[in-house]
């Protein structure tokens, strides 16, 4: 089946819905393809808020927000992206408010704001209230609001469609190919512009806050075209996921006064970050927790968790501002945060790297400024390098709406100014080959077993603390797993809702993302942000103040070619001396 739209958006989370909305406002026809019904997208799991320097509680400025973003990113953040973001997020939050997003309110009626890790006033002097929130359901509220606005603007949705190929010829994207879950049919979509916004790839790890659908599909497809993935070595572990489960516990829980404690009930973050303690950036808090656990001060049956203590907070805070977390702790752990300390552990959470883009979301084909015409990306799938080596809490939702909006506006402008290019002949051939190969495999290997081995080995070898030998071993493990993957066979013959087939396709995507990530990580011989090496403990700005660009070796699949892209610097150039870790 064939379809044609001026602008096609892949993904219906916050970035995809924002991009679709602003493309639709540009007087072009817009369609959105999504694995899930839009309001089930993973943005709905984001709890804490959107960082914006509104100054509703205390004095604040976009320059302070920009500084925190750059410093939090350990100076790998592109500073033009941080400036654009810190300025435009203020207006964009007010736009969401005017669309009807039900933000929590201060007593004077303004949008409520609370403290969040890494957000400071006066360039690091003290914590500041910057997170704009809707209780602890901010992502859910964003999804609902943006979906309603898209329905109003006439966006067409193709729900439960899995994109399997990007159509790129002569440096221009002309559409996508997708598999419809309900029918088993293959669809081709012809477009003037395509926006990729399908989320991250957290399912490469065993313990993750990511939904089951976050398998890096479009990152993998982009990579398979010989195009680069940027900064894949930088993956953030959120300090607080529910123990064993990975279900996210918002950083807002610490913004409201929650305290991390070890087995002796010590507030240990006072030793690691004396100024802002539990509100330090996520990479610092996660490493501090792991250090406590490694040194025998963990809690729980396996001594591999840490307490988060809310017992000193008022009931109205715990059951009001933190209602979702309270319910999750009671439901999944049998603990009542009003009287029990809750067990949490660092959890794979967010990819700082992804498909490289410029400030308007246009996809880059190399580190020298080359582009893929008509192809845009936004959200966690993209890397405009706002987050650098470590993302600040609340900057993810801000990234979605600021750069999703920018991509939508740019794609619509491009679509209005250009004609449809010809699609390749037999556009669906790669997808047909992929699905036929999986259905006709030897059957010697099991998808679930390979996925388990991938997730466990990635958690062990490319987790919070890393070293060269373990990561080099992981590179070889991934090669072995990819070879095993060649022996997978889908045994379910069903045409409609064939979950076995989808699992097999997604495993291939995960293996590609893990391949690029492990190769990029072992190559970067320093510690920076979320990339903490035990054999290279110092940040090395002389040799490593640059972005990694990982390319698939098209002549020798299984190997990764590493290139680089310069970091954009202006405004904040202090603190570039090599930095020794204090852990």
TrEMBL record:
Entry keyword annotation includes Transferase: no
Compartment(s) where it occurs, according to its Swiss-Prot or TrEMBL record: Membrane
UniProt cofactor(s): FAD
Membrane association type: Peripheral membrane protein
Alphabetized UniProt keyword annotations: Electron transport, FAD, Flavoprotein, Membrane, Oxidoreductase, Transport, Tricarboxylic acid cycle
Record pathway: Carbohydrate metabolism; tricarboxylic acid cycle; fumarate from succinate (bacterial route): step 1/1
Reactions performed catalytically: a quinone + succinate = fumarate + a quinol
Domain FAD-dependent oxidoreductase 2 FAD-binding residue range list: 6-397
EC number: 1.3.5.1
Species per Swiss-Prot/TrEMBL record: Deinococcus lacus
Similarity comment text for this entry: Belongs to the FAD-dependent oxidoreductase 2 family. FRD/SDH subfamily.
Record protein name field: Succinate dehydrogenase flavoprotein subunit
Pfam families cross-referenced by the UniProt entry: FAD_binding_2, Succ_DH_flav_C
The keyword Transferase is annotated on this UniProt entry: no
């Amino acid at each position: 089946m064939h379809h044609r739209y001026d602008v096609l958006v892949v993904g219906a989370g916050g970035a995809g819905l924002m991009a679709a909305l602003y493309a639709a406002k540009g007087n072009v026809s817009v369609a959105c393809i999504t694995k899930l019904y839009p309001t089930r997208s993973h943005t709905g799991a984001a709890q804490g808020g959107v960082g914006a320097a509104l100054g509703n509680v205390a004095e604040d400025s976009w320059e302070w927000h920009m500084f925190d973003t750059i410093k939090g990113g350990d100076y790998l953040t592109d500073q033009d992206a941080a400036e654009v973001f810190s300025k435009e997020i203020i207006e964009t939050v007010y736009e969401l408010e005017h669309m009807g997003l039900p933000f929590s309110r201060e007593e004077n009626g303004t949008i409520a704001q609370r403290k969040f890790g890494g957000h400071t006033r006066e360039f690091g002097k003290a914590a500041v209230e910057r997170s704009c929130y809707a209780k602890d359901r901010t992502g859910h509220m964003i999804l609902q609001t943006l979906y309603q606005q898209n329905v109003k603007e006439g966006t067409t949705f193709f729900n439960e469609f899995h994109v399997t190929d990007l159509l790129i010829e002569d440096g221009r994207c002309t559409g996508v190919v997708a598999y419809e879950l309900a029918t088993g049919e293959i669809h081709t979509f012809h477009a003037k512009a395509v926006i990729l916004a399908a989320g991250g790839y957290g399912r490469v790890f065993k313990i993750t806050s990511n939904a089951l659908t976050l398998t890096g599909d479009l990152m993998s497809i982009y990579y398979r075209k010989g195009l680069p993935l940027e900064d894949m070595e930088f993956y953030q572990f959120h300090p607080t996921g529910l123990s064993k489960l990975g279900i996210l516990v918002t950083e807002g829980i610490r913004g409201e006064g929650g305290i991390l404690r070890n087995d002796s009930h010590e507030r240990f973050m006072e030793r690691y970050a004396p100024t802002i303690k539990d509100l330090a950036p996520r990479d610092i808090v996660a490493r501090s927790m792991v250090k406590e656990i490694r040194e025998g001060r963990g809690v729980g049956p396996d001594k591999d968790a840490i307490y988060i203590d809310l017992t000193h907070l008022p009931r109205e805070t715990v059951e009001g501002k933190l209602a979702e977390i309270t319910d999750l702790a009671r439901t999944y752990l049998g603990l009542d945060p009003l009287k029990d300390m809750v067990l949490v552990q660092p959890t794979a959470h967010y990819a700082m790297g992804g498909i490289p883009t410029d400030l308007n979301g246009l996809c880059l084909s190399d580190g020298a400024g080359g582009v893929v015409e008509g192809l845009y990306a936004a959200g966690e799938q993209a890397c405009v390098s706002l987050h650098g080596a470590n993302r600040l809490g609340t900057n993810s939702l801000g990234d979605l709406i600021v750069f999703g909006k920018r991509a939508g506006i740019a794609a619509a402008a491009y679509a209005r100014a250009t004609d449809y290019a010809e699609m390749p002949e037999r556009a669906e051939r790669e997808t047909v080959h992929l699905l036929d190969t999986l259905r006709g495999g030897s059957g010697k290997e099991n998808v679930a077993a390979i996925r388990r081995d991938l997730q466990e080995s990635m958690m062990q070898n490319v987790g919070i603390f890393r070293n060269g030998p373990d990561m080099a071993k992981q590179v070889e493990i991934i090669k072995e797993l990819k070879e095993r993957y060649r022996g997978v066979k889908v045994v379910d013959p069903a045409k409609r809702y064939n979950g076995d087939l989808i699992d097999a396709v997604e495993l291939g995507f995960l293996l590609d993302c893990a391949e690029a990530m492990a190769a990029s990580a072992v190559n970067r011989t320093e510690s920076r942000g979320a990339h903490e090496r035990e054999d290279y403990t110092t940040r090395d700005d002389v040799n490593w103040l640059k972005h990694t660009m990982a390319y698939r070796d098209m002549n020798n699949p299984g190997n990764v070619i590493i290139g680089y892209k310069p970091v954009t610097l202006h405004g904040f150039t202090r603190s570039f001396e090599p930095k020794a870790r204090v852990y």
